[in-house]
Specification:
It is a single chain. The protein is an alpha/beta fold. The chain has 2 domains: 301 residues, 3-Layer(aba) Sandwich (Rossmann fold); 116 residues, no CATH class. The strands form 3 sheets. Strands 1, 2, 3, 4, 5, 6, 7, 8, 13 and 14 form a 10-stranded mixed beta sheet that branches. The longest helix is centred in the middle third of the chain and has 21 residues.
């Protein structure tokens, strides 16, 4: 349950002072009164709908490219120190702090080991790719209003040692946070003259879990209370068709559940990847501490390009040759580079990822995909009738991830799986993260997404 908070005049004043500071850093004297008034109204309206009060703690505006700007607002959504989320928005401006009016709007949901910055505006944090080469910026340049959030775990500092606060950070809690930001998005757009219209939602990887859980829950409320008019799930299987895949998901569920029952409420995979990236950047030729016989660069590349080999027994990968990025290998099978995504870009992104993640949501995810553990997030899939566009990578979860489409009541269903190799070479094919970061992602993935958005 979302905890109760107080929206006070003081909080709004604090927003205004931090807004001024952010504007000063941009060298502007902005007219932000209308923007803050819209945020204030949206917070009050969202409080009424959600039955909870929210408090803003920080607001940021920064220039990305052309007339495209990024806004970020921190929201306190619970009583604890780490009960915070960050709402993001990438949009063109008419003038400082005043977004343009747009017909198209999309909410984005992050996956594991990621945040909004990494997935949707990574080019802002790296010089390895052209300025603005990110999905979020690409869509905003085409007049799409792009929203998203960093979930609570994405904001937890690296120096935390007691993770007991994550005990109840499960799918239900995160789903409430997503709904809060979605309502805020719609009410802010209403205040800006765009109307209180339903929006599209895109989920990447673990974000697909929330995408379908959200749509499933909405089938049980009246149409006028629903937020979604269409969804774009990207490269995650919400349900499996093959029995072997179901059983593999059940094993992962059991492993995670055993850790949770033993008092471990978090995953530190993010911290591990960040450390590998640091060593690969700082000491690429030094012997790896984690993979004997490899140097630090090779070890980092291995986790990215041969991800399927990094699942500790008895766990198995989502697909036999599942990998995050398509790699290049020498004759001995040692990774030497990446095919489609710039290596330095990946290093920069890896150094930006959150170190920790809540384990409870991962347990829920394996319960859902297995179909062998009772859960409340797949009871009404056949009642989902909104348009769906599934996108997969042949080297990621690919075509098996599209099985869920057969369980929906939707008539408007589309599938796109990016595969550049024959099936026998799937271990080298387009990977999970290539969908957002590859040099050819704009043509292969982003353009079809934009075209589908325009149609819906």
């Amino acid at each position: 349950m979302l905890k109760r908070f107080f929206l006070t005049t003081m909080a709004i004043c604090f927003c205004m002072s931090t807004a001024e500071a952010g504007a000063a850093q941009n060298g502007l004297v902005p007219d932000y009164a209308k923007s803050l008034q819209g945020l204030s109204k949206a917070l009050v309206s969202t409080k009424k709908v959600m039955g909870a009060e929210l408090k803003t703690t920080k607001i940021l505006r920064e220039h990305l490219i052309g007339t495209v700007y990024h806004y970020a607002v921190d929201l306190q959504v619970g009583p604890g120190e780490f009960d915070k989320i960050r709402m993001h928005r990438i949009v063109k401006e008419q003038r400082p702090w005043l977004p343009i009016k747009t017909k198209e709007c999309i909410m984005t949901i992050n996956g594991d080991l990621s945040n909004f910055n990494c997935l949707f505006m990574g080019s802002h944090f790296s010089n390895a790719v052209p300025e603005g080469y990110s999905l979020g910026v690409y869509l905003a340049e085409k007049n799409v209003d792009v929203w998203g959030l960093d979930q609570r775990w994405a904001l937890v500092p690296e120096d935390v040692t007691d993770f007991s606060f994550m005990r109840n950070w499960d799918t239900a809690l995160h789903l409430k946070d997503i709904q809060t930001v979605t309502k805020l998005c719609r009410y802010m757009r209403l205040a800006e003259g765009n109307g209180y219209k339903k929006i599209l939602m895109l989920g990447m990887s673990r974000g697909v879990q929330y995408l379908f859980a959200y749509a499933d829950a909405e089938t049980q409320v009246p149409q006028y209370e629903r937020d979604l008019k269409g969804i774009i799930p990207i490269d995650m299987a919400y349900k499996y068709e093959k029995q072997a895949s179901k059983e593999a998901a059940l094993v992962r569920y059991q492993v995670f559940k055993a850790l949770y029952d033993a008092g471990v409420y978090y995953s530190s995979d993010g911290a591990g990847i960040k450390y590998l990236a640091y060593l690969a950047a700082a000491q690429p030729e030094e012997p790896s501490e984690t993979i004997p016989g490899f140097n630090n660069k090779q070890a980092f590349l291995f986790t990215a390009a041969a991800t399927y080999a990094t699942f500790p027994p008895p766990m198995e990968p989502y697909e036999p040759f599942y990998h995050n990025l398509a790699g290049l290998f020498d004759d001995d099978g040692i990774p030497i580079g990446l095919q489609f995504t710039d290596y330095d870009y990946v290093l920069d992104l890896a150094l930006e990822i959150p170190p920790y993640q809540s384990l409870a949501e991962m347990i829920d995810g394996e319960a859902i995909t297995s179909g062998l553990v009772e859960n409340p997030y797949d009871d009404h899939l056949n009642a989902i009738t909104i348009p769906v566009f599934y996108i997969g990578a042949a080297g990621g979860e690919g075509e098996p991830g599209s099985y869920v489409l057969t369980l929906l009541g939707s008539q408007d269903k589309k599938m796109l799986v990016i595969g550049l190799y024959p099936p026998e070479a799937v271990a080298l094919d387009f990977g999970h993260g290539d969908l957002l970061w590859a040099g050819n992602a704009k043509q292969l993935v982003w353009k079809p997404i934009y075209q589908w958005i325009k149609q819906h």
